[in-house]
Request: fold
Amino acid sequence: MTGLDATSRPAGGRAGTDPPAVRTVVRLAGALDAAAAPALRERLIGLLHSGLGLLVLDLSRVSSCDSAGLAVLIGAERRARVLGTAMCLAAPSIPVAKLLHLTGLDRNLTIYPDLRALAAEREPARQSPQVLSGGVAARHHERD
Reply:
């Protein structure tokens, strides 16, 4: 089953304006397969909400992925787009990167080769730990 760790970052904002958009990094581990897909789908749906600026799925620790896993990635991207949230994949493991290429999803999804490439486009942030329901660790990052 796939493990899940979510990290959220408020993207800033000024006093008296709308609440800041949030960036959430979800670190997945293990097999992204038919056994793990339903639970992962539910967790991602729970994380996606209007006002979320960016959802990043870190695939560096995903050992394998099947059609059910791909369906979760595609569904999350579609839901994110409907909500006005950007979604990207980061650091796909070699087997997952090959699968994304073979299926052509590497042309349809935003994929960063590693988290450094993603971070290079984003401002650094401070961390303060928080735990989401279900025991999923999260760190909210606030911009300086």
